[in-house]
Amino acid sequence: MADAADHLLCDLTVVTMDAQLRVLENAGVAIRAGRIAWVGPMAALPPALADLPRQALPGRVLTPGFVNVHTHAILSMVRGVAEDLGFAPAYTPGIPHGHDVRPDEAVALARLGAVEALLFGSTLVNDTYVHADLTLPAMAGIGGRVFSCGRIHDADFSLIGDGRWEHHDAIGDRTLDDALALAARWHGGFDGRTGVQLSAHAPDTCSDALLARIGEAARAQGLRVNTHLAQSRKEVAQVLARSGRTPAQLLDEVGLLDDRLVAAHCLFLDEADLARCGRAGIHVAHIPKGNATGGTAAPTSALRRAGAALALGTDNMHADMVEVLRWALAIGRLQEGGVDDFWQPMHVLRMATLGGAEAMGLADRIGSIEVGKQADLVAFDFRRAHLVPCVNPVGNLVHTAQGRDVEHVWVDGRQVVAAGRPTQVDLDAILADAQRAAQTLWQRAREGA
């Protein structure tokens, strides 16, 4: 990817997400060497920056890039189907599964997920699934930041759809070794745009011993960990029967429950586990839309009050983080039983930006529009009918915007989306490749049913 040219974005509204949560009207952002060199009202533009090439964007709202902390890009292969099956595809018989995906199909579907996320304003995705050694560089080639890892587990996934949990050391050795090799190859790659979090699939698909090994490896390599936690009653029952502990208790005992853990879902936590997760300061990857589609909701009010940090992810079926913002706010208010200061649009926008950056250990680099940070930026077109009039830009963004309102995206100051189209890749070719991959997967699944 070509180096970013120094330039000035001007005449727009800037939602900074800085410590003061400033929203600046008639403002500008100067970009130099891929970083933010200045942000403020245009009336206060320093003379030294006045000669920078300008990109005037009146009627647009600029936000930090979204940090999508929990995705499975390849699972677009079951888009429009898995939402109505009641639980995660990995546990559902009769549809394509991760172990069914061939390398070329994985790359095609992962590239679709990466470009979809970028078009919807996610400048970083934290993706896990299969063939990560191939999908990570393929996704990074789209232009965004990509953290990725293959599923680390020792349960035999080919049996789980039939309700059988069999753990094998050889599977655990292979999946953990693959993850560590991926980190050695790609953590900090693509000029710092790629990385690895060790992806312990879930407490029911990882034995106690494997979970402990993942924690040891993460500490030894200076890596963070992500997992699914309390994502189903089936998981909780399985871990209780196997280990005599709740999933959160088990993660605590093996040394994984801490502020370097990104835990997705966190749906079925008892009072003691809520307190345990809060004390540990875990980062919850809240999946409000996906969970609500399945008839569940994470206890996000209780988690916040306990001390857990919240970030947002889209998970399986789509990459529209704006829709996720809206669902996160609505679910929080349902828990509170009304509208008050505990859940306001700025809270969920922070979860999608700086909160995500904190979960990824990157808050010093991304997540807000501040001098010195990487220029990961998203411009929304607020000239559209559903976003006019605009009295409160953050309110409009959360309540009435859509991911399709993203017009431009920059990563490290490079424009990777312009006028709603990716600049680095052929979108039509990516769509066609993904469609073919999904069709062949479904054909094999039907023939094997």
TrEMBL record:
<feature type="domain" description="Amidohydrolase-related">
    <location>
        <begin position="61"/>
        <end position="416"/>
    </location>
</feature>
<comment type="similarity">
    <text>Belongs to the metallo-dependent hydrolases superfamily. ATZ/TRZ family.</text>
</comment>
<dbReference type="InterPro" id="IPR032466">
    <property type="entry name" value="Metal_Hydrolase"/>
</dbReference>
<keyword id="KW-0378">Hydrolase</keyword>
<protein>
    <submittedName>
        <fullName>Hydrolase</fullName>
    </submittedName>
</protein>
<dbReference type="GO" id="GO:0016810">
    <property type="term" value="F:hydrolase activity, acting on carbon-nitrogen (but not peptide) bonds"/>
</dbReference>
<dbReference type="Pfam" id="PF01979">
    <property type="entry name" value="Amidohydro_1"/>
</dbReference>
<dbReference type="InterPro" id="IPR050287">
    <property type="entry name" value="MTA/SAH_deaminase"/>
</dbReference>
<dbReference type="InterPro" id="IPR006680">
    <property type="entry name" value="Amidohydro-rel"/>
</dbReference>
<dbReference type="InterPro" id="IPR011059">
    <property type="entry name" value="Metal-dep_hydrolase_composite"/>
</dbReference>
